Amino acid sequence: MMMRILNIFALGAGLLMAGAANAQQPAPPAANPLDAIPEKMPWSNLYGAPISVPQAQKAIEAAMAEATKRGWPLNISVVDSGANLVAFVRMDGAQIGSIAIAEHKARAAVKYRRPTKVFEEAVQRGLNYILTLDDVIASRGGIPLIVGDKIIGAVGCSGGTGSQDEVVCAAGAAAINK
Question: How far apart are the first and last CA of the chain?
Answer without folding.
Answer: 85
